[in-house]
Amino acid sequence: MAPGANLVGIAGGDRLLDGVHLRRHGRDEQPRELPDEGLVAVLLQKRGCVEGGHARIMTDACLRELAARISTAGRVTVMTGAGISAASGVPTFRGPGGLWRSFQPSELATPQAFARDTLLVWEWYSWRREMVVACRPNAAHDVLARWSRRDGVRLITQNVDDLHTRAGARHVVRLHGSLWELRCFTGCPAGSRPWRDERVPLPRLPPLCPHCGGHARPAVVWFGEALAHGDLEQALAATRCDVFLSVGTSAVVHPAAGLMHEARAHGAWTVEINPEATEASPDVHLTVRGLAEEVLPAIELAMR
Ligand code: APR
């Protein structure tokens, strides 16, 4: 495989048969019907050659290569987005049925929106807490929880649902905070350190800061806000790795979306797992078009 060339793969069932046109060696080529041996297959893709839709299947050989690279790498960093929790029933943000399809981020996920209508914002977060408390980690969370116990594995998430932690994952860097943590909105010194409150429903909306009596806010990172210094530092340090996996993110929100590029610049082999093309797809070494809850267990199986 030429360095820098991109691989594309698909995982899982009858979705394998979506058609693509390839331009390779200067001619159009209809995708071949490949036997469904193994889970996924790879089409060699030079940048800009593949047009319209998903690529075809990847052989077991390539799944083994992916597994071998992950198991032999000294440092593996995995960054996840909303897509990893989709199979648990947590809506994504921008996909079909995504939160931002029915709600305005400017009305619900900014400090200005909170100041403008504190109750509205808290009703929305309370609704999300009620939804997420009923969800369970899925097979993708479980695989990453097991991997997180291995030296050299770093897990970064943009998700605020804490399903990685509930799956038993260790040292999860939560870039965007947690639905289950609150902090003081007025910023009183004692209340600026987040406290955990998992009560559903919360006894009072809006909840109050136990230190100053002012409004408490969800300890999540809203649009226009900086990430917690420590979290961003840890995430940037984790881009110094051998393999960087980007799982279930549309790669549009920065600085999280920049981490893959940082890792690639540090020489990491970069992989995307997502059923859809994303902003990052042209820039990763391998794109696996598949569902996290199918692809990650398949990789783990191939690592045995
Ligand atoms: N497995 C893998 N990926 C999936 C799956 C799945 N089962 N289902 C959906 N996806 C992919 C979608 O194709 C999409 O590319 O997950 C991605 C989800 O993208 P977004 O909804 O944009 O979520 P995310 O990238 O995590 O958003 C980043 O934006 O709104 C803010 O703070 C919020 O953390 C969030 C940030």
Reconstruct the topology from this structure:
Elements lengths: L5 E6 L10 E3 L2 E3 L10 E6 L14 H13 L3 E5 L18 H4 L2 H4 L2 H6 L1 H16 L5 H9 L5 E5 L5 H4 L5 E3 L2 E8 L10 E2 L19 E5 L8 H9 L5 E5 L11 H7 L3 E5 L12 E4 L2 H12 L1
Parallel strand pairs: 1-13, 5-6, 5-11, 6-7, 11-12, 12-13
Antiparallel strand pairs: 1-4, 2-3, 8-9, 8-10
Helix pairs in contact: 1-10, 6-10
The structure holds adenosine-5-diphosphoribose.
Name a few traits of the molecule.
304 residues; alpha/beta; SIR2/SIRT2 'Small Domain'; 8-stranded mixed sheet; 3-stranded antiparallel sheet; 20% strand; elongated; disordered N terminus; binds adenosine-5-diphosphoribose
Structure description:
The chain has a domain of 88 residues: SIR2/SIRT2 'Small Domain', CATH 3.30.1600.10. The chain is built from ten helices and 13 strands. The strands form three sheets. The chain has an eight-stranded mixed sheet with strand order 4-1-13-12-11-5-6-7, sandwiched between helices. Strands 9-8-10 form a three-stranded antiparallel sheet, with helices on one face. Strand 6, helix 7 and strand 7 form a beta-alpha-beta unit. Helix 1 crosses helix 10 and helix 6 crosses helix 10. The longest helix has 16 residues. The two termini are 24 Å apart. The N terminus is likely disordered. The chain binds adenosine-5-diphosphoribose (APR). Adenosine-5-diphosphoribose binds next to helix 10.
